[in-house]
Amino acid sequence: MGFYGLVFPAYVWLCMIPGRGRLEPTRWQLLVFALAVLIALPMFWMGFIQRQLIWLLPGVAIVLLARVMIPAQAPRIPAPGS
Question: Where in the chain does DSSP place strands (E)?
């Protein structure tokens, strides 16, 4: 559940969408992703394994708010002939 509910959606939200899927994630994006997952993982454990669903709310909020730490990127246009 942790990968389907936390890791994969967090990766898409924090690493793929800011670059519109055309740019590889920067180190900063990967660092923000890793920190968000590490902070939210115990909350997801409490929510899914310990069945205390209220813990899912702050876990999801951490992942959603982590997006604030990632700057918007302008799409890169490849040079002619590249």
Answer: none
